[in-house]
Amino acid sequence: MKKILALLLGIAVVLTLAGCSENQLPESVSTPKLEEAIQDVQETDHGFKTVTMLGFEALTDRKSDSDILTDIWREKTNVKAEIQALNGVNDYTAYITNAVAGNTLPDIIAVDEGIFDVEERFELLKNSGFLLSIPFETAKEYMPQTIARLERMGISFEDWYYANADEDTGEWYYIPTLPSPLFQEDIRDSRYGIDNTEINISYIWIRDDILNTVEQGSVPASTIETLYDVYADNMNYAYIDDSHINSLDDLSEYLKKAQECIKAYGLDVGVIHPAADNSAAAIKWSGYSFADRIFDDMPLYPNNIAFGSDDLAFFESTDEWHDYLLWLNTAYNNGWITDFMSDTSNSRSYAVMNWWLEPKTEISPITGNEYGWRLFPAFTSSTSGGAAVKLSLETRGAVGFNAKRFGQADLEWLLKWADWNYSLEAQELRNWGVDLSEGEGQQRRFKDEYDQVADYMLSGISGENDGWKYGLVNALSGSYEYWNHEVYGVCSRDVGYESPFYVYDLNNIKFDQRYFVPYLYKKDIVDKGKVLYIELDSEKEEKAKAVYAVLEQEYTLNVEIAMEVVFKKLITCSGSDFEKEYKAYMELYNKSTLKGMEDSLSESLKQLFEK
User: Fold this and answer.
1) Of the given ranges (289-298, 407-416, 422-431, 491-500), which has the lowest mean pLDDT?
2) CA end-to-end distance (rounded Å), the chain
3) Is 66 in a helix, a strand, or coil?
């Protein structure tokens, strides 16, 4: 069975690796000059090995076969990849099932869409004989650049290989993605490290003209942007720390005042829309469902299970879940939530919104000026005590080879092709292009004449001469459909601490509350030293994984199917009928075996982790 939960390394391993931070990082890999690269491509008689590869066709008129990076990739590897497009595919399990049945899978299965991470898909590919096995000694022989990159992190190729090997055969059936750069202690202290530290917290948008009317003296959104322009890298969360919503009770008090403000000014505004869409499932798992619970009642494990972590934070039968549903019912009956299950609610304006939504800025009848939106870390009292750094050698699956097209004799050139894609040189090219930048390390910058490239790579701003012209993609925010998958599709979003986004100062990057506020909040917590290192016992992990697999299946079959009907009735009933409807809701829930599995899972998980 393919592994479902990530193998987290113990404290002993972390301490062993800590010494690698004393080593100096190697100098940036040199890349060919633009003119030289073009000349090489033009003068070389290729004779490519042409392969088909699962990916996306770029939705742009600047196709991949015309950019300089693609030419370099083909020159370095002697492999030309033709993309079998996934554009428009919504159900990847159905796609893989049909492709297996019709023997229409491409030569290379390489796309970051959970192809290997969803057990059903992986097992189907493997058991149908569509994945070529990759023995350890073969991989070690033909992946020297990958080995060098792992050594830079203080990781042995053998450890990485066997952490991702199939449990039945002990061999790879796909090449996994690289482990996190956070294995290096100095990287954990960098902006990249802070940004990639996991802090399980919800955020909410609050319209700031109503906020400043209800809470006098609150910092307007425009002021945060001004502070960003002035202080940027030197700014701390304390500059904007006026959060006052630390629990569901606090949120209720604010919504009461917001409702009074809306009535007083006659605004055509809803009080709150608490989810990304209008379905019962979205409401149920909205950010507010984690209010003041995760770190208080379950201090470690929900934040550190790699798959299904949020689903494990609450179980239907807990008192906290009952209280949350009661809060939603109360909010509905108080008129705070009115049309959240209608098809039109997302087109309305609201005083408070879930942070997944895109807030609209309009002229305020209160002030006569444009109002902005504040992004608040919600319920901070329960989350300010911990941030989790997960160090895992078990990673996602990145690329598999079609065993119906290739045999063991093909592994030499296939692995060399993959090895180039994993190399430091390839990462440098993806991040900085060919001869577009100057300087070393944290002083590296795009040359002045490539200012549009810098704007694109840092903030996603498009222009006639932006990154696409030179084969670059803003992979931090760019959609899969805009990647050149021959260059980017194998590495699985290979963006690291030496990418422009993390090398440039923050004041070079366009202000965006969605990034900046969470970053400041994380920085504040990490600066206080509240980082959890997690130790996992592998034998206990196996037991927990088995229980979780059953839980996930039963939950889907027995609960989610009926959720839309019973959940809507539960939330929209009168307050006096809530307990009766909740009893009916729980009767449906308890028809499954979830409760027993839930207790077993909770007990096994609690034994897995230690500070």
Assistant:
1) 289-298
2) 29
3) helix
Angle at 375 between CA 224 and CA 190, to 5 degrees: 75
pTM: 0.75
Three-state secondary-structure class, residue 335: coil
Contact between 370 and 207 under an 8 Å Cβ cutoff? The reply is: no
Phi and psi (nearest 5°) for 428? -60, -45
Q: What is the mean pLDDT of the chain?
A: 77
Residue holding tokens 């012209």? 469
Nearest alpha-carbon partner for 467 in 486, 485, 447, 451 = 451
The one-letter amino acid at 54: L
For residue 422, give the DSSP letter.
Answer: T
470: which 2 tokens?
Answer: 């030179």
- Give yes or no for a contact between 574 and 582, defined as CB atoms under 8 angstroms apart: no
Task: State how far the Cα of 575 lies from the Cα of 10, in Å rounded to an integer.
Answer: 48
3-state helix, strand, coil in the chain (%, to 5): 50, 10, 40
User: If you average pLDDT over residues 287-307, what whole number do you get?
Assistant: 37
What single DSSP character describes residue 230?
A: H
How far apart, in whole angstroms, are the C-alpha atoms of residue 204 and residue 195?
A: 19
Rounded Cα–Cα distance for residues 272 and 282 (Å): 14
Rounded distance between C-alpha atoms, residue 214 and residue 259, angstroms: 10
Q: Which residues contact 536 (CB under 8 A, 6 or more apart)?
A: 7, 8, 9, 10, 608, 609
Ramachandran category for residue 493: left, alpha or beta (phi over 0 → left; psi -120 to 50 → alpha): left
Contact 227, 240 (CB under 8 A): yes
**For residue range 30-78, what is the model confidence (pLDDT) as tens digits?**
443 434 433 333 333 457 899 999 888 776 665 655 678 888 999 999 9
Residue of 541, 531, 142 whose CA lies nearest to 305:
541
Round to whole Å and give the CA distance between 500 and 447: 12
Residue 109 and residue 88 in contact, taking contact as beta carbons nearer than 8 Å = no
Cα–Cα distances in angstroms (integers) from residue 490 to residues 73, 118, 146, 415, in the given order: 12, 18, 13, 12
Pick the closest to residue 273 from 348, 330, 326, 220 (CA basis).
348
